[in-house]
Amino acid sequence: MSVSELSASTQNYLKAVWGLSEWSSDLVTPSLIAERTGLSLSSVSDALRRMTGQGLVDHAPYGSVVLTDTGRAHALAMVRRHRLIEAFLVTALGCTERAGAGPVGPQRAQDLRRRRRQLRGAQGRHA
User: Fold this and answer.
1) Which of 48, 69, 87, 103 is the most buried (most CB within 10 A)?
2) Of 58, 30, 67, 32, nearest to 46 (Cα)?
3) What's the Rg (C-alpha) of the chain?
4) What is the mean pLDDT of each run of 10 residues along the chain (127 residues)?
5) How many CB atoms within 10 Å of residue 118?
6) How far is residue 109's CA from residue 114's CA, in Å, rounded to a whole number?
7) What is the pTM of this model?
8) What is the dihedral sign for C-alpha 46, 52, 57, 63?
9) What is the dihedral of CA 68, 15, 49, 37, to 10 degrees?
10) Is the separation of the CB atoms in 32 and 69 below 8 Å?
């Protein structure tokens, strides 16, 4: 199964587990995942059962959560993709805030449309 075949929800859980385990030596628990994602503990538990069945995490009831090799590979692929998109937004489109840090407001959307038109114009001059 490729990353693109995973549901957005599953992708979000993988990123949450990766983020919690990558930067801390603490065990990742369903409670921590619920706190990180803002979801209920029961929703997280259901998702972990499903993801265990898919071979993405190792988790026993009341135990910690660990990414399998497959789960880690998928999580890393998503993190890399998001970092590439962030780098593109900063370098090519001139975003100055941390890309993806929040919703795009009307002014930011207008700025991005203007920058896109500039890039298209420059592309036409080089063709």
Assistant:
1) 48
2) 30
3) 19
4) 85 92 89 93 95 95 93 91 80 64 65 76 61
5) 12
6) 9
7) 0.70
8) positive
9) 150
10) no
Calpha distance 23→39 (Å, rounded): 21
Q: Please, where are the H alpha helices in the chain?
A: 8-22, 30-37, 41-53, 69-91, 106-125
Tokens of 7: 């549901």
Distances (CA, A) of 91 to 29, 78, 94, 96: 37, 20, 5, 9
Is the CB of residue 13 less than 8 Å from the CB of residue 51?
A: yes
User: 48: which residues sit within 8 A by CB, 6+ positions away?
Assistant: 13, 30, 33, 57, 59, 65
Distance, in Å, from the CA atom of 86 to the CA atom of 65, rounded to the nearest integer, reads: 28
In single-letter form, the type of residue at position 123 comes to: Q
Q: How confident is the model at residue 74, as a pLDDT?
A: 94
Q: Are 77 and 5 in contact (CB under 8 A)?
A: no
Q: With CA atoms as reference, report the closest residue to 16 among 102, 95, 87, 79.
A: 79
Which residue is it, tokens 């900063």?
90
Angstrom distance (rounded) from CA 124 to CA 59: 54
